[in-house]
């Protein structure tokens, strides 16, 4: 099969939805798997994307990244339908604030790290055999500038009320690098979409999520070797490296 198959997690809304839109705007010769933990939400997002007049093949798939049975089901579905996966975009992510009385301290850390780190590691690992069936396999992890140790230690990131989230994105960055060392046949990238207007931050972000989606779309489709493995953002219509 010549057409690239690209799966984006958490693609039913926000930046994930926009990543699928951005990919479809760049090429019609793609099969774009809109993964959501709710099949209904995946179907709804596919209808919305089709309503935008995009020409790529857009398909729904159920995938809760924190549920092992769901991940294995998605792997089997992709295997049965396509026999390979060209690009996995790990976009699904959560944030959250710990209660003033710390009553949910452990719960919040576990939940955020489980979704943003452990699940990315497991989803990536379980899709490796299908990625290895593709000619130029890639994994793009949607991280955040909040996970940049350089930006934090140089004071460029102001203090945050969402420490577990920042910790999770720093860990995701390291996971990206470690996995790239363990699996040198797969291209691993991390992206910072920037502060986007999504449900994630109560739609307070100044950036259009479609703009925030461009870095992941660019890395998914760029010719092999155009961008060295790293941490990237899309700024002023070009790719820019983000310090780790
Ligand atoms: N927005 C920003 O300013 C910003 C900045 C930097 C980085 N990011 C990163 O960008 C990514 C997307 O964020 P967003 O702003 O688009 O957030 P969002 O609007 O809240 O969307 C989050 C997506 O992740 C999905 N999700 C959460 N838990 C999941 C699970 N267990 N299994 C599968 N899907 C799950 C959600 O699904 P449901 O609809 O089912 O909840 C939703 O589709 C995240 O990794 C976030 O950390 C965002």
Notes on the structure:
This protein has 244 residues and is α/β, with parallel strands linked by helices. The protein has a single domain, classed as Rossmann fold. The protein has helices at 14-26, 39-51, 68-82, 105-131, 149-153, 163-182, 209-212, 214-221; strands at 4-8, 30-36, 57-62, 87-90, 138-142, 187-191, 231-235, 238-241. Helix 4 links the parallel strand 4 (87-90) and strand 5 (138-142). NADP nicotinamide-adenine-dinucleotide phosphate (NAP) is lined by residues 9-10, 12-16, 36-38, 41, 64-66, 91-94, 115, 142, 144, 193, 195-196, 198-201, 205. NADP nicotinamide-adenine-dinucleotide phosphate is lined by residues 9-10, 12-16, 36-38, 41, 64-66, 91-94, 115, 142, 144, 193, 195-196, 198-201, 205.
Strand order of the largest sheet: 3-2-1-4-5-6-7-8
Low-confidence runs: none
Helix and strand succession? EHEHEHEHEHHEHHEE
Distance between the termini: 36 Å
Number of domains: 1
Summarize this, please?
InterPro entries: NAD(P)-bd_dom_sf, Sc_DH/Rdtase_CS, SDR_fam. This protein is of the alpha/beta class and 244 residues long.
Q: Any descriptors?
A:
single chain; 244 residues; alpha/beta; Rossmann fold; 8-stranded mixed β-sheet; 43% helix; globular; binds NADP nicotinamide-adenine-dinucleotide phosphate
Layout of secondary structure:
Blueprint: E1 4-8, H1 14-26, E2 30-36, H2 39-51, E3 57-62, H3 68-82, E4 87-90, H4 105-131, E5 138-142, H5 149-153, H6 163-182, E6 187-191, H7 209-212, H8 214-221, E7 231-235, E8 238-241
Parallel strand pairs: 1-2, 1-4, 2-3, 4-5, 5-6, 6-7
Antiparallel strand pairs: 7-8
Helix pairs in contact: 1-8, 3-4, 4-6
GO molecular function: oxidoreductase activity
Keywords: NADP, Oxidoreductase
Protein name: NAD(P)-binding protein
């Amino acid at each position: 099969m010549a057409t690239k198959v690209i799966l984006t997690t958490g693609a039913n809304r926000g930046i994930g939805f926009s990543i699928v839109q951005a990919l479809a705007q760049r090429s019609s010769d793609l099969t774009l798997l809109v993964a959501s933990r709710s099949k209904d939400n995946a179907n709804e997002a596919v209808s919305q994307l089709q309503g935008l007049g995009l020409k790529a093949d857009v398909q729904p798939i159920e995938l809760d990244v924190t549920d092992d049975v769901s991940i294995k089901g998605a792997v089997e579905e992709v295997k049965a339908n396509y026999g390979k996966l060209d690009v996995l975009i790990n976009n699904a992510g959560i944030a959250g604030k710990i209660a003033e009385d710390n009553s949910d301290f452990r719960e919040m850390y576990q939940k955020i790290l489980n979704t943003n780190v452990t699940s990315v590691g497991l989803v990536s690992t379980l899709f490796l055999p299908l990625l290895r069936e593709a000619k130029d396999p890639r994994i793009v992890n949607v991280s955040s500038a909040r996970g940049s140790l350089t930006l934090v230690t140089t004071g460029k990131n102001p203090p945050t009320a969402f420490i577990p989230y920042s910790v999770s994105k720093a860990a995701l960055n390291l996971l990206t690098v470690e996995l790239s060392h363990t699996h040198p046949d797969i291209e691993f990238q991390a992206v910072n979409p920037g502060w986007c207007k999504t449900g994630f931050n109560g739609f307070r972000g100044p950036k259009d999520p479609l703009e925030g989606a461009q870095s992941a779309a660019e890395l998914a489709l760029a010719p092999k070797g155009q961008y060295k493995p790293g941490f990237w953002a899309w700024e002023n219509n070009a790719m820019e490296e983000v310090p780790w």
